[in-house]
Design goal:
The complex is a heterodimer of chains A (about 110) and B (about 120). By secondary structure, chain A is mainly β. Chain A contains no helices and eleven strands. In chain A, the strands form two sheets. In chain A, strands 2, 4, 5, 9, 10 and 11 form a six-stranded mixed β-sheet that branches. Chain A has a five-stranded antiparallel β-sheet with strand order 1-3-8-7-6, with no helix packed on it. In chain A, a hairpin with a 6-residue loop joins strand 4 (about 30-35) and strand 5. Chain B has strands spanning about 5, 10-15, 20-25, 30-35, 45-50, 55, 65-70, 75-80, 85-95, 105, 110-115. In chain B, the strands form two sheets. In chain B, strands 2, 4, 5, 6, 9, 10 and 11 form a seven-stranded mixed β-sheet that branches. A four-stranded antiparallel β-sheet of chain B has the order 1-3-8-7, with no helix packed on it. Chain B starts with a strand and ends with a strand. Classes of the chains: A mainly beta (about 110), B mainly beta (about 120).
Chain lengths: ~110, ~120
């Protein structure tokens, strides 16, 4: 079966660091993606991991451990505009994506 | 470079009706995937089209069908609409087989309300 788990909601303070975890069990693995989705808008691509380790892109970093079926998205120097849902998605084979339920992050002043 | 576009933006239908949603893929992309996203949930994969052929399908009934055209644009058709079909329908395009880093780029979505 296909299963991706993420916390439903998280709250953090402006300027802080937050880590959003994702665990997955899928029939295949061909890459893990993180998307940001503001309310009422389409998801936008944030990061991609296919090998174990950390990928850094500015204030955002994403980590992958394939043996543990685990990833996290790290957001540094949080800004109010980072308040959004963060979606973890696994490409299980070919180009078929399985999305998690999303983590709604609220950044407070 | 033109991004992914979808039409219409919003749509209201009644139970039992049929609806067609449209998507134009990003320039250079030959693969289109459709997703249904209920409020507060992640997108659920409906199906994918690659070079005009269905290339994978999620757990959706046959009344959800699709097409892809030679220019790689796509349609999603839903027959016999049910109240639970009310959702945001997202189209995403990608370029196949050019390396694992290819990702899906989403259109703005069509908000369907079934009354």
């Amino acid at each position: 079966g296909q299963n991706i788990d993420q916390p439903t909601e998280m709250t953090a303070t402006e300027g802080a660091i937050v880590q959003i975890n994702c665990t997955y069990q899928t029939s295949g693995f061909n890459g893990l993606f993180w998307y940001q989705q503001h309310a009422g808008e389409a998801p936008t691509f944030l990061s991609y991991n296919v090998l174990d380790g950390l990928e850094e892109k500015g204030r955002f970093s994403s980590f992958l451990s394939r043996s543990k079926g685990y990833s996290y998205l790290l957001l540094k120097e949080l800004q109010m505009k980072d308040s959004a849902s963060y979606l973890c998605a696994v490409r299980d084979y070919g180009q078929n994506f399985v999305f998690g339920p999303g983590t709604r992050l609220s950044v407070l002043p | 470079e033109t991004g992914v576009t979808q039409s219409p933006t919003h749509l209201i239908k009644t139970r039992g009706q049929q609806v067609t949603l449209r998507c134009s893929s990003q320039s250079g992309h030959n693969t289109v995937s459709w997703y249904q996203q209920a409020l507060g949930q992640g997108p659920q994969f409906i199906f994918q089209y690659y070079r005009e052929e269905e290339n994978g399908r999620g757990n959706f009934p046959p009344r959800f069908s699709g097409l892809q055209f030679p220019n790689y644009s796509s349609e999603l058709n839903v027959n016999a609409l049910e109240l639970d079909d009310s959702a945001l329908y997202l189209c995403a395009s990608s370029q196949d087989g050019q390396g694992q880093q290819d990702t899906q780029y989403f259109g703005p979505g069509t908000r369907l309300t079934v009354l």
